[in-house]
Amino acid sequence: MRSMxxxxxxxxxxxxxxxxxxxxxxxxxxxxxxxxKAENDFVTLADRESEDAVLGVLEARFPDHRVLSEEAGYxxxxxxxxxxxxxxxxxxxxxxxxxxxxxxxxxxxxxxxxLAGAILAPEQxxxxxxxxxxxxxxxxxxxxVSDREGLKGAFLATGYPFKAKAALDVYLDVxxxxxxxxxxxxxxxxxxxDLAYTAAGVFDGFFxxxxxxxxxxxxxxxxxxxxxxxxxxxxxxxFLRTGNLLAGTKGVHADLIDALSRHxxxxxxxRLVERPSAG
Length: 279
Prior knowledge:
The chain is α+β, with helices and mostly antiparallel strands. It has helices at about 5-25, 45-60, 90-95, 170-180, 190-200, 215-225, 240, 250-260, 265-270, and strands at about 35-40, 40-45, 65-70, 75, 80-90, 105-110, 115-120, 125-130, 135-140, 140, 155-160, 185, 205-210, 230, 245-250. It has two domains: about 5-140, Fructose-1,6-Bisphosphatase, Chain A, domain 1, CATH 3.30.540; about 155-270, D-Maltodextrin-Binding Protein, domain 2 (3-Layer(aba) Sandwich).
């Protein structure tokens, strides 16, 4: 008999695949209806169609559950203890440019506990899955974070704070300290995939400011189930609400906390940039 977490994960995977099928048909299509949500932040017809496909799967199976999705916001199930967190297209700018680095991310939590999450990279055919206590997997194969012991020589991922430009100077101070220690830092433009590949040991760690809950929910569970550590800037668990995330192996995460502590804190980011509106 399947556990509840296994059932939730199965539905998350089906939702990912439904959204991914929509996106594969539209990548790089310059005729898509592109709208500007904020400076350098876009939404397309593909985002909405992928979201419709994902939500269709979730609502057909769990009509009473609450859902938080990037474009639709909150809907349904206000009394439910279960909440789905959906990014129907993470990496919209990449998608619009025809750069095949984008993803669909779906996660489910009960209260503050993440139970299941799945991230699909449609172009690569990579499906990352995790359930609470069930480990993390890539295309059905168990994965784990790397064995990197610290920032020295680490291969990292990050994202520039283009939605939080008031924090740019702080970010650049942190980036400089990390850059001087790391082997390389990549900015691929899809935080969900950055976290998924950190869980798989491709990246040794990740840091970024002012993400949204849908950017990180599934990826954070993947990293923890793969043996890694995830936190906000102060080492706490409030990253879904603050949008500030540090992740990686135990040693890399500890060094990231040390680097951040010299320049930033949750209180300092709150002073500079308001928190994301949902999560």
